[in-house]
Amino acid sequence: MKEHVAICGLSFCGSTVLSYVLGSLRGAGTIGESHWLVDPYPDGTLLGCCRCGTGCRVITPALRERLRTAGADWYDIIGTALGPSVLVSSDKNHALLERLDPDGRRSELVVFKSPIDHLRSYVRALTSTGERPEVEWYPGGWAEHYGHETRIRGRRAFLLFDDFLRSPSGCVAALADWLGLPFDPRVLEYWEFPHHAVGGNSNPFEPTNLGRRRIDPNRRFTTTVPEDVLEAVVAASDAPRVFEALLANERRIVPRS
Asked: What domains can be seen in the chain, in order of their start residue?
């Protein structure tokens, strides 16, 4: 494995679809949210491969057992099992990444939405599972997280998810350049590729998701919380200032024309 690229950001930033798209590039592969290979769900179960289920010939019991004692070699072991020169992961959380890659050998792609779009995604996701979203807290948490992201050094790039929705081919072509991989527009039909990954907010291989796989620039989430309430809590936070800093970041990915 030549490189491990960790997609970073808050939950619901778009990391699942991006990991599949980037993992479809020739020379790349995605493992998704790799910590679920050994971290059980609250009910004690381990997630199976998104495509093969529990009988996967890549994500095997032997691989999971090796990872339990992997130490700093976590992503190297996964990269060897999957076989790509560039491994993409979407563990996102820095605490997880420091646990799985304590030596910091990764490159990072920070994915972000506007504060209002991210708040809509967060509210929609939690209400769909019967949980109560913390609407007033969220913009401040968003600002703290992404403000920290702008201060981290190393090999990093920043991607506004809305840029990806408006120009998926242009963004992925620019990301392929950043990764040193050839671009093929067919990767946007990522479900046609034989991925072996775990976790994420949707599984493109599940029959119930077949109608939602295509990248739709016009898809916008609506919530049960009034829009003026969402706008007010965002405006009262530091999120607009941090968002402007993200947009002006010199490491931001510019879609290729």
From this structure: 3-248 (3.40.50.300)
